Amino acid sequence: MVPVHLDVASPGFQGTSAAAGGHTRLFCTSSVPATGLGNETFSPVVKPATVRTVLVLALSRSWPIHQLDVKNAFLHGTLTETVYCSQPTGYVDPTRLEMVGRLNKSLYGLKLAPRAWYSRFATFLVSLGFTEAKSDTSLFVYRCGDATAYLLLYVEDIPPVSTHFRPIGSLQQEFAMKDLGVLHHFLGVTAEPRPSGLFLHQR
Description:
Layout: E1 2-9, E2 25-31, H1 48-60, E3 66-70, E4 83-85, E5 101-102, H2 113-128, E6 131-132, E7 139-144, E8 147-152, E9 157-158, E10 160-162, H3 166-174, E11 177-182, E12 185-186, E13 189-194, E14 197-201
Parallel strand pairs: 1-4
Antiparallel strand pairs: 1-2, 3-9, 3-11, 4-5, 6-7, 7-8, 8-10, 12-13, 13-14
C-alpha cells in the first residue's frame, strides 16, 4: 500500500507542453511509500546521444521528422500497485473525514506515475510491431517491408522519424496527443531546417 496526499492547483509544469491558463489539475503533493513500493524513481527520457544518432540517420535518408505532444501523459498510466489517497482540497466530505480513496490511474506527483505511463506506452507500441532498443529503452523501432519508423520518448514529447506514418495514426487514436508538425524544439534545443540539413542551437 502506498499512501499519498492529494491537492488541486494550477499545473505550472515547465517544458514544451505548456498548460492552458485557468486549468487546474489533481496531483500528489507527498508520497510515503510502504517498504518495496514506490521507492524507485523512474523517468522515461531518451538519451541525448540517441537523439543525435537518430536525427543524423533521418537527415542522411531525407526522412520526415515530426513531433507529437501527449496531453497529460502521466494520466494515461495504469497502476499495478495499491495506492490510497487523502480526500483532495475542495472535495472533502465533512461527514467522512476519516475516509480515503483508492487510485485506479496514476497522477502527476506520484513516484509511480512515470513508470506507469512508460509501461502503458511501451506495451501499446509493441502491439503495433515496434521493438524497444536495447541501448536505450526510450527508443522504439518499427520495421515492416519498406516502412521504417523511430520513436523517441522524452516524458510526454515524442519526435517520430518515419518513412511511413500509419503507426503514428494508431498512436493518435490510442492517446490524446497533438501533432506539432515538423520538429522545431526538443530538449531545450531549437531545430531549424536548412538546405544543407538541420541547424540545432540554443538561444
